[in-house]
Design brief:
Oligomer: heterotrimer
Strand order of the largest sheet of chain B: 1-2-5-4-3-7-8
Number of domains of chain B: 2
Distance between the termini of chain C: 23 Å
Number of domains of chain C: 1
Shape of chain B: elongated
Shape of chain C: globular
Helix content of chain B: 40-55%
Structural class of chain B: alpha+beta
Order of helices and strands of chain C: HHHHHHHH
Chains: A mainly alpha (66), B alpha+beta (354), C mainly alpha (217)
Radius of gyration of chain B: 28 Å
Number of strands of chain C: 0
Number of helices of chain C: 8
Chain lengths: 66, 354, 217
């Protein structure tokens, strides 16, 4: 019974979400698309960080040898 | 890399990050909600962006423009700074049925929404001059300093500070890489079996490789950020645009450069052939990113004649942040290169010692 | 110079089977296209298929450009002529060969699919595009084949290096010939023609400048 209720609740929660044209778009279009900017800044940071981490690993290898 | 260069780099990037986020967009018209327009009394709601309707309520004017005729609206309700409702009286005969909605305040200047709205019952006569009202268009100059408001871009106009410098940085790094490849070939041109000469060749080659690999990082970042930006402005992750396709080809060409490197065992031969291919790649890059986009229509701004931004797209408020951003990112690219290079050098001497 | 060209033609003649293989490849490709499609109404599809055929034909024909030059011949050639002359001869020969092959696949396409899509085309423009595209493909791939030959890696590397390098050429060629099929005037299509010429010139000049470095050991 409780399972059934939970399922009904889940469906009721899902229905409005399904009705949204594209949840991704809705999320990113909020407040003047500022979230697109944040996503892009985050990606740039991630990219630079990945590069720095790769360099860091190489330095560590050198240090171990010494 | 000199310490003062690093300081400048950090300062420029911090300035970019802050100035690129804190400046508001200048006020603009976002949308108009209206029933089907018809002759007689119509009501509509004007939705602004970053406007100050409520604060300037007493001076707020709303009007509807058809071609060059203005019809003043009577404001019925201002719910907040961005929503104002009004009614407007429209005549039976209009010069055309393209409506534009304006809002006027001393603080925001004149903002407008040009939008196709449904209508019925109007007779159109191109020479009709219906009696409108005189409108005091305050000014196109905006009191507040801010980034341009563009209807599809909205806040994403700030991405100019993040996406575009990636390409500038890649371009500069790849050109440095090509310069070192030329140096590699020139050093080889002198017939000598001197060990010193041999080392010089390998060192130039190593630097060319590392410039190219840090350039690849920025190429990748440019592609990824561009793709996301495109998704939420042009509506697709990838669009048929010469700059986009060109950037992808540049990425593939440099990927081929690294594949070529990894498939040659002999150091001297690798240096020589990779340098030759690198010069090829750099020339292709210039053609792809500088020449080809000028001649093909695409979605990027400043098309037909100018691959960069035109006066209109990059106004003075953006310039004050954009140019420092480009310089800062190029310096960061060089910084990353120099760290990478120093590590590669240490690895080299390490192998000699071992 | 002419003797070098003659040498290329003679060499090719002696290896008739290789050329015959490529011709068979072209015929088979176009025939497969025909079997799959029977008729093509859309100029876009026509154009795409023609250029895909052209691209793969060029790769097929040109990746072994330098592989006949083994051992003795190579050093003999080296004493006779400067590397630039060798390269120029090869590029002229293989550029023309690519143009011929692509002209042939074009003719085959016309034979199998009819001339329907060309009803308002500017034929002179289309053929110019075909010629310039082929020579560009031929020159770029000849140079890259030389590079890969010197690297000692297998001929498969030509495809890896070649595809990205000829991509700008492909983009422009497809646009140019597509516009020609629509019957646009020369002035409307002139910018694409200009890019084709620039790319051809770039491949030619770069190859000639860089080839001596490629050749010396």
């Amino acid at each position: 019974m409780r399972k059934l209720l939970l399922m009904v609740a889940a469906v009721m929660l899902l229905v409005p979400m399904l009705r949204a044209q594209d949840p991704l778009e809705e999320y990113f279009y909020a407040s003047g698309k500022i979230r697109v900017v944040i996503a892009i800044i985050g990606l740039v940071l991630l990219g630079i960080l990945a590069y720095v981490i790769a360099l860091d690993l190489r330095v560590r290898k050198l240090e171990k040898k010494k | 890399m000199k310490v003062w260069l690093k300081v400048i780099c950090i300062l420029l990037l911090v300035y970019t990050a802050i100035a690129g986020m804190v400046h508001p967009l200048i006020p603009g018209g976002l949308d108009v909600r209206t029933e089907t327009l018809h002759p007689g009394l119509n009501s509509f709601t004007f939705i602004g962006y970053n406007t100050s309707f409520l604060e300037q309520r007493s001076e707020l004017q709303l009007f509807v423009a058809v071609d060059s005729t203005f019809f003043c609206a009577t404001i019925t309700e201002v719910t907040d700074n961005t929503h104002a409702s009004a009614t407007v009286e429209l005549p039976d005969t209009l010069p055309s049925v393209s409506f534009a909605f304006y809002a006027n305040t001393p603080h925001d200047g004149t903002v407008y929404v040009g939008k196709a709205v449904s209508h019925r019952g109007f007779a159109t006569d191109p020479v009709a001059r219906p009696a409108g009202c005189n409108v005091n268009v305050v000014s196109d100059e905006h009191a507040a300093f801010g980034f341009p408001f563009q209807i599809i871009l909205f806040e994403t106009i700030r991405n100019i500070m993040w996406h575009v410098p990636m390409w500038f940085t890649m371009f500069v790094l790849m050109l440095f890489s090509m310069a070192l490849s030329i140096k590699t070939l020139r050093a080889m041109g002198q017939e000598t079996t001197d060990v010193h000469q041999y080392k010089k060749v390998l060192s130039a080659d190593r630097r060319a490789r590392i410039y190219a690999s840090s350039g690849m990082l920025f190429c990748l970042l440019g592609l990824v950020t561009g793709s996301i930006w495109a998704r939420f402005t042009w509506g697709a992750w990838w669009t048929m645009d010469p700059q986009l396709n060109g950037a992808m080809v540049v990425f593939l060409v440099y990927a081929a450069y690294f594949i070529l490197r990894s498939s040659i065992e002999d150091e001297e031969k690798r240096a020589r052939l990779a340098a030759i291919f690198n010069i090829f790649a750099a020339v292709l890059m210039v053609i792809l990113l500088m020449i080809m986009p000028r001649f093909a229509e695409g979605l990027h701004p400043g098309k037909s004649g100018n691959p960069a931004f035109s006066q209109y797209d990059l106004d003075s408020s953006l310039r004050t942040v954009f140019y420092p951003a480009v310089l800062g990112w190029i310096l960061l690219g060089y910084w990353l290169y120099s760290i990478h290079y120093r590590i590669a050098q240490l690895e080299e001497t390490d192998e000699h010692d071992a | 110079m002419f003797s070098l060209l003659k040498k290329e033609i003679q060499l090719e003649w002696r290896q008739k089977h290789a050329l015959a293989g490529v011709l068979l490849y072209v015929l088979a490709t176009v025939f497969v296209c025909y079997l799959a499609l029977q008729s093509i109404e859309a100029p876009d599809v026509w154009n795409a298929l023609l250029w895909i055929t052209a691209l793969f034909t060029a790769f097929n024909a040109l990746q072994r450009t330098f592989h006949q030059e083994t051992g003795g011949t190579l050093y003999y050639l080296y004493t006779l002529a400067s590397p630039r002359q060798i390269m120029l001869a090869k590029m002229i020969y293989y550029g023309l060969q690519a143009a011929l092959l692509n002209g042939m696949s074009f003719a085959l396409f016309l034979f199998f699919f009819g001339t329907g899509v060309f009803s308002d085309a500017d034929m002179g423009q289309f053929l110019t595009g075909l010629l310039l595209g082929s020579t560009g493909l031929g020159m770029a791939l000849t140079f890259l084949a030389g590079l890969v030959f010197r690297s000692g890696a297998g001929a498969g590397l030509v495809a890896v290096l070649g595809f990205p390098v000829v991509m700008p050429l492909m983009i422009t060629m497809v646009r140019f010939s597509r516009f020609a099929m629509d019957g646009l005037s020369w002035s409307e299509n002139g910018l694409n023609l200009l890019i084709l010429l620039v790319l051809n010139a770039a491949f030619l000049i770069l190859s000639l400048v860089l080839f001596p470095y490629l050749w010396r050991d």
